[in-house]
Design a protein that fits this description.
About 45% of the residues lie in helices and about 15% in strands. It is an alpha+beta fold and about 200 residues long. The chain has a single domain, classed as NADH Oxidase (3-Layer(aba) Sandwich). It has a 4-stranded antiparallel β-sheet with strand order 1-2-4-3, sandwiched between helices. The longest helix is centred in the middle third of the chain and has 27 residues. The protein starts with a helix and ends with a helix. The structure holds flavin mononucleotide. Flavin mononucleotide binds next to strand 3.
Length: about 200
């Protein structure tokens, strides 16, 4: 498949068949992630692959984060919490169904909430590099007939998941992978006129 076709045919997939993906295919997909560009070629990523038989702990961590958020003692506050809870509950179901979840960790930044400009800029560059890697993973998955979903709703259980993953580095995203059980149409995009300014 040529690159433009791969980019335009990619969709977020939220329904998966109960069919395992073999490890070799997952490695090939991750190889595409590793080939992404990165700031100063730092390659600030690490991938933790959770297979079906080990996903119980992941789901429990996510459920516990959602429960804490519902109790009002979570990371989000007020009205915004409600929309994040709804999104996270929906995403939890998708992650229950997907045979593979990959957690993407930023090995260049610790979880720090008070940072200097230098630390923020490094973090921005690292997260961009990781975004490129994740996009490569999504596109490569499509090449092997595998559906993918880029997930940040996991942030609701940030502390619980980092503890379960046993990392003090920054958790950036999760990716669910599986053979698709849906064929969604393209989602709307804003027009060029709104997005691009020529000077
Ligand atoms: C950084 C990022 C985080 C996302 N997090 C979630 C998520 O937690 N749950 C979910 O269902 N979709 C998530 N998505 C998928 C978007 O909703 C999706 O990309 C968007 O609606 C456009 O649809 P498309 O990917 O099919 O083009 C995320 C996408 C990105 C890039």
């Amino acid at each position: 498949m040529d690159t433009i076709t791969a980019i335009s045919q990619r969709r977020s997939i939220r329904k998966f068949l109960p069919k395992e993906i073999d490890n070799k295919t997952i490695e090939k997909i991750l190889e595409a992630g590793i080939l992404a560009p990165s700031a100063k070629n730092t390659q600030p990523w690490k991938f933790v692959v959770i297979t079906n038989k080990n996903k119980e702990g992941m789901l429990n961590a996510l459920k516990s984060g959602i429960e804490i958020e519902k109790s009002g003692n979570g990371l989000y506050k007020g009205e915004i919490a409600k929309s994040f809870i709804n999104g996270a509950e929906y995403t939890l179901k998708i992650m229950e169904e997907a045979p593979i979840t990959i957690f993407v960790i930023n090995t260049g930044n610790k979880i720090l909430f008070n940072r200097s400009y230098g630390e923020v800029f490094t973090e921005m560059a690292n997260v961009q590099s990781i975004g490129a890697s994740i996009q490569n993973i999504l596109l490569a998955s499509g090449e092997y007939g595998i559906g993918s979903l880029w997930i940040c709703d996991i942030f609701i259980a940030y502390k619980e998941l980092c503890k379960w993953l046993n990392t003090d580095q920054q958790l950036v995203a999760a990716i669910s992978l599986g053979y698709p059980d849906e064929n969604p149409p393209p989602r709307p995009r804003k027009g060029m006129g709104e997005l691009v300014e020529w000077r």
